[in-house]
Write a structure and sequence with these properties.
Layout (H helix, E strand, L loop, with lengths): L2 E4 H30 L8 H26 E4 L15 E6 L5 E7 L10 E3 L3 H6 L7 E6 L2 E11 L2
Parallel strand pairs: 1-2, 4-5
Antiparallel strand pairs: 3-4, 3-7, 6-7
């Protein structure tokens, strides 16, 4: 099943992939070569650390390639705005209990970063918001109990 991803998320993964395949591979290769020069590899901590780092890097490369291969990249700017919350939109909410304004962008699972205001499309709040319009009220079940929000704005950016 394809995994939804924004254009920005795909570009970020491609950039990381390029960095891991070029710069990081060369750095790790140099570190392994330098560690080999220190002699006995069985007791060489630098060599084992570099090999472990190499394994992690190659695993991450495979993981990114698989994610990009399975990704359904969605360009929200190509979707005509209908005033509804959909994948890729930025949503302004008013918290029912405090009146605080909160802004979230609904993104793919790998792109989610709460500090940056990006929430996964699979999160409880995003699932509750999908399909809602400005003025709609939403109740979200969280581990801390139910939270009420009003949709204050939906932007296609």
């Amino acid at each position: 099943m394809p995994t939804p991803m924004t254009l920005e998320g795909a570009a970020s993964l491609r950039q990381e992939l390029q960095q891991r395949k070029t710069e990081m591979r060369h750095e790790i290769s140099r570190a392994i070569g330098a560690a080999r020069e220190h002699g006995d590899l069985r007791e060489n901590a630098e060599y084992h650390a570099a090999r472990e780092q190499q394994g992690f890097n190659e695993g991450r490369i495979r993981e990114i390639e698989a994610k990009l291969a399975d990704a359904q990249i969605i360009d929200i700017t190509k979707v005509p705005p209908q005033g509804k919350v959909i994948f890729g939109t930025t949503v302004r909410l008013i918290a029912g209990d405090t009146g605080d304004a909160i802004t979230y962008k609904i993104v793919g699972e790998d792109e989610a970063d709460l500090k940056a205001g990006k929430i996964s499309v699979m999160s409880p709040i995003a699932r509750a918001l999908i399909g809602k319009s400005v003025g709609d009220e939403v109740t979200v079940r969280t581990p801390n109990g139910e939270m009420g929000y009003e949709v204050d704005g939906v932007d296609h950016v």
